[in-house]
Amino acid sequence: MKIKSFVFYFFAIAIFANTLSAQKSKDADAFVVPKIPLDKDTKLITYTKVLGIQGTKDELYKKALSWFNTYYKNPKDVLREQNETDGKILGKHRFNFNNPPDKKGSTAYVGILQYSIYIFAKEAKVKYEIKDFNLKDASYHPIEYWLDKSSQKYTTKCDYYLLELDTKINEVIADFEKFMNAKEQKANDNW
Q: pTM higher than 0.85 for the full model?
């Protein structure tokens, strides 16, 4: 009888341990980290691209400024520098980020992520750079440790934060590119 109960408990514990191990690996693989672009010199997260767009430097500058005024809810809070002579616009924006969803699908607020968006206009070209990502706090906290799995600050939640960051920034980029590539509608004077 003792042998039967020993075998029973042995298999019960083995199955239980296997179930826990499967859940752990399932949770660890739940968030696929997207390819986050890093600046080759600074090694900081930087989204950048040059768009070839018809127009003069001044036209493209004004169009980019118009995008800031339509995309952001409070553009006056976002816009920090507007230099029409150099064709440069600097904005600083922030958004809330959350922990991964729990079993019920609820997410909990973690903090505020800030970034800088630079726009440079030239003849037939517009370049954007989205960089300087940091956690809003009393002091500057860059987020690049989210990429370093050997960092003491790293947790598996960092993968979710990177996914959330990449999704939000790609939404900003898609809207900017669509706005800048859209042809201007001429007003109909025949009324």
A: no
Q: How far apart are CA 86 and CA 58, in angstroms?
A: 9
Alpha helices in the chain (DSSP H): 2-28, 57-71, 75-78, 157-181
Torsion of CA 12, 18, 24, 25, to 10 degrees: -170
DSSP tally for the chain: helices H, then strands E: 4, 6
Q: State both tokens at 143.
A: 């987020």
> pLDDT for 100-112, tens place per residue?
988 888 889 999 9
Domain covering 36-181: architecture: 2-Layer Sandwich (3.30)
For the chain, the structural domain boundaries read 36-181
